[in-house]
């Protein structure tokens, strides 16, 4: 394995030595940090993957078709994605008619700002399909909203569940130690906090951001198990775990 850096810090000389047939990267829209322009200027072949911009779980999964084109596997990719979509829809159907939709919020306070996914984001779609009342579902945005701690506390203080927060917190003590105001949330008081880092390797890589994109039905099953245990009684949490 050769280390070549990341994004704006990519070592072009090493890449030229490796002479790869294709480099896949992403774009943030910032010419100061994006690497693809410099890579193409160096004569390297670059493909930009933008799955992170999709606003539905299946939209993110469908980018496997993009990757497959480079290997002439487009027909196989169509079949695989069709199977993924069918599995997701079957799971979503199980929670479609739930009457009790528990209030849910996500994220955490990072250097004074709490980034909350908008109501048109893939996160909001997951919660809608899992039978949750995502408290920012009515915000007509597909990107994360920069909020203050006070704004989040005002709306989410009585929420039943808190998910998808800091990857560094190992237990409830870590959470409160970072900011004692977190203890004011009912989700913390009741112990209903779950994170999506149950599968992390020795290098800190989180499988939720790897295989989770190709297995949205499992992510959705986890969420339904957390929010409505009676719907999927035999499902064992895979990407999520409870902080205690």
Q: What does this 3D model show about the protein?
A:
It is a single chain. The radius of gyration is 20 Å and the shape is globular. The strands form three sheets. The protein has a five-stranded mixed beta sheet with strand order 6-3-8-9-10. The protein has a three-stranded antiparallel beta sheet with strand order 4-5-7. The protein has helices at 12-18, 36-41, 57-61, 64-69, 74-95, 122-129, 149-156, 172-178, 186-189, 211-214, 216-227, and strands spanning 23-25, 46-48, 103-106, 109-110, 113-117, 133-134, 144-147, 161-163, 193-195, 241-242. By secondary structure, it is of the alpha/beta class. The chain has eleven helices and ten strands. The protein folds into two domains: 1-48, no CATH class; 94-242, Rossmann fold, CATH 3.40.50.1980. Helix 5 packs parallel to helix 11 (216-227).
Q: What's the helical proportion of residues?
A: 25-40%
Largest sheet: number of strands, sense, barrel closure: 5 strands, mixed
Rg from alpha-carbon coordinates: 20 Å
Strand order of the largest sheet: 6-3-8-9-10
Look up the CATH topology of the largest domain: Rossmann fold
The CATH homologous superfamily of the largest domain is termed Nitrogenase molybdenum iron protein domain
Mean pLDDT: 92
The proportion of strand residues reads 5-15%
Run of helices and strands:
HEHEHHHEEEHEEHEHHEHHE
> Separation of termini?
37 Å
Instruction: List low-confidence stretches.
Output: none
CATH class category of the largest domain: Alpha Beta
Shape descriptor reads globular
Number of helices: 11
Number of domains: 2
Helix vs. strand class: alpha/beta
Instruction: Count every beta strand, where a strand is a DSSP E run of 2 or more residues.
Output: 10
CATH architecture grouping of the largest domain: 3-Layer(aba) Sandwich
């Amino acid at each position: 394995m050769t280390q070549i850096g990341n994004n704006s810090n990519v070592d072009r000389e090493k890449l030229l030595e490796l002479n790869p047939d294709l480099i896949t990267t992403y774009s943030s829209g910032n010419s100061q940090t994006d690497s693809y322009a410099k890579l193409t200027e160096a004569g390297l072949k670059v493909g930009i993957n933008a799955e992170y911009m999709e606003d539905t779980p299946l939209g993110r999964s469908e980018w496997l078709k993009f990757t497959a084109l480079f290997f002439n596997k487009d027909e196989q990719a169509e079949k695989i994605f069709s199977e993924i979509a069918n599995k997701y829809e079957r799971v979503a159907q199980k929670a479609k008619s739930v009457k009790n939709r528990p209030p849910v919020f996500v994220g955490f306070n990072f250097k004074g700002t709490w980034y909350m996914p908008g109501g048109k984001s893939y996160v909001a779609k997951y919660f809608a399909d899992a039978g949750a009342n995502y408290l920012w579902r009515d915000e007509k945005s597909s990107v994360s909203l920069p909020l203050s701690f006070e704004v989040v506390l005002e709306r989410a203080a009585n929420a039943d569940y808190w998910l998808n927060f800091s990857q560094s917190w190992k237990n409830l003590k870590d959470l409160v130690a970072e900011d004692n105001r977190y203890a004011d949330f009912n989700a913390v008081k009741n112990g209903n906090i779950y994170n999506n880092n149950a599968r992390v390797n020795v290098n800190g890589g989180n499988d939720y951001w790897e295989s989770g994109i190709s297995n949205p039905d499992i992510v959705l099953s986890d969420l339904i198990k957390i929010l409505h245990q009676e719907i999927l009684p035999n499902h064992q949490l895979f990407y999520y775990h409870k902080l205690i």
